[in-house]
Each structure stands twice: as structure tokens, then as C-alpha cells.
Design a protein that fits this description.
The chain is mostly beta strands and 100 residues long. The protein contains 1 helix and 8 strands, in the order H-E-E-E-E-E-E-E-E. The strands form 2 sheets. The protein has a 4-stranded antiparallel beta sheet with strand order 1-8-4-5, with no helix packed on it. Strands 2-3-7-6 form a 4-stranded antiparallel beta sheet. The longest helix has 8 residues, at 2-9.
């Protein structure tokens, strides 16, 4: 887990107000299917001074889910997303941030 934190900490910041994509090495996610819904847990290790991170989840039926991530303190950000689709329907997950 420390490896992906070090990768995120050394990214150069861009121009203020620019939206950048967080590299996939900086976060991990797991999805669990339950009887009535699925739940996706995402943990990111991003040490830059971002005001917020947003996770975008693309599904194979061409729909998507967007959620704000919660800053846990330090370099840690988390999100928990409940959805009606099964985990197998997740096509991709991306996290973006706006440069302050």
C-alpha cells in the first residue's frame, strides 16, 4: 500500500483550476455483491493539497456513477458507493481532482 502512496505524492501539480486524473496506482477498490445491491469501497492515497476528489464508475450498460470522496486526513481518501447493478457490470473506475 505504501507503494501507491509514494507514486501519488510525487506528481507535479498543473495549472490552478485544471482537472487531473489520479493514476490507478494511487488507489484500490473492491466491490461486494449483496442480495439487493452491490457496494464499492474505494481507498486512495493522494498527498497533494486537493480540495476534493471525485470517483467516476463506468458500467457496461453505458451508464455511470459519480461520487465525491471523503478526506480521511493526511493522504487518505475514501468512498463507499452502493449501486443496484452487480459488480461484474463495472467497466472502469477513475478518480479526478481539481488543482487548487
Amino acid at each position: 500500500m505504501l507503494f501507491f502512496i509514494s507514486m501519488a505524492c510525487h506528481q507535479p501539480l498543473k495549472t490552478s483550476g485544471e482537472i487531473i486524473e489520479i493514476p490507478s496506482e494511487a488507489y484500490e477498490w473492491v466491490c461486494s455483491d449483496y442480495q439487493e445491491h452491490s457496494e464499492i469501497e474505494i481507498i486512495a492515497g493522494v498527498c497533494n493539497d486537493f480540495e476534493n476528489l471525485e470517483v467516476s464508475i463506468s458500467l457496461i450498460n453505458e451508464s455511470f456513477i459519480q461520487e465525491q470522496m471523503y478526506h480521511e486526513g493526511g493522504c487518505w481518501w475514501t468512498a463507499s458507493v452502493a449501486q443496484e447493478e452487480n459488480c461484474i457490470e463495472i467497466e472502469s473506475i477513475a478518480i479526478t481532482a481539481m488543482v487548487p
